[in-house]
Amino acid sequence: MPEKFQNKTNGVTQRRWLAFCNPRERDLITEALGSDEWIGDLYKLTGLREKADDPEFKAKWAAMKRACKEDLAVLVKEKTGYEISPDAMFDIQVGNTDNNPVTNEKNGTTRPRTSINKALVWLPEHDSQLLTIDTLSQVKRIHEYKRQLLNVMRCIDAYTKIKAMSAEEKSKLTPKVIIIGGKAAPGYAMAKKIIKLINAVGAK
To answer: Hey, what long-range contacts does 190-197 have (CB within 8 A, 24 or more apart)?
Structure first.
């Protein structure tokens, strides 16, 4: 019977990750829809379709995104000393932000998680170099067959292609900032190797 099928997810909700974490976007959506009822009923976002070709709304949306990118650039500068341009495309693999240590329920002991707190940043002025920076970005657990590993392999492929380009070809590229984060149990040896790989790529 169809009613017996239920969807369970460990994903995020618009209440936490949009209404709470992104007040600029929340306020703009609420303004466009005329109420904040969409926070409890996500289907009401379909009302934004009417704004798809509205020049004023699109300008406000672009300005909102720009302001958020500028905030992130300031945070990265404060935490790492590196300057990233809001004009660049920000490619951030992000999920939850659980930094709590691992707790053994049997004996009550705790151990720190094995975490990545690095970002791979490509800056054209550094001759297409990928720089490693500290970051607050985190994602879900590291697995040896997906997520961060596939992402860093994509970075390696992109880096290799960029290095082989001429100066003219590089000038036509959109600058990109890639931020990768993750966490794993401290005994997960493969996760540590993936972390090492990401840092090695960032240091290349």
So the answer is: 190/144, 191/114, 191/141, 191/142, 191/144, 192/114, 194/142, 194/144, 194/148, 194/149, 194/152, 195/114, 195/116, 195/142, 197/149, 197/152
CA nearest 158: which of 120, 126, 132?
120
* Most confident range, picked from 16-20, 130-134, 196-200: 196-200
**pLDDT 10s digits, 3-51:** 777 666 555 566 777 788 889 999 999 999 999 999 888 889 999 999 9
Highest-pLDDT range among 30-34, 89-93, 139-143, 148-152: 30-34
> CA angle at residue 19 from 81 to 54, to 5 degrees?
95
Distances (CA, A) of 22 to 3, 29, 61, 165, 200: 34, 11, 13, 38, 33
Q: How far apart are the first and last CA of the chain?
A: 55
Residue 86, burial from CB neighbour count under 10 angstroms (0-12, 13-18, 19+): middle
Q: Whole-angstrom Cα distance, residue 94 to residue 116? A: 12
Q: CA–CA separation, 22 vs 30, rounded Å?
A: 12
Classified as helix, coil or strand, 140 is coil
Helices (H), 44-176: 55-80, 148-163, 167-171
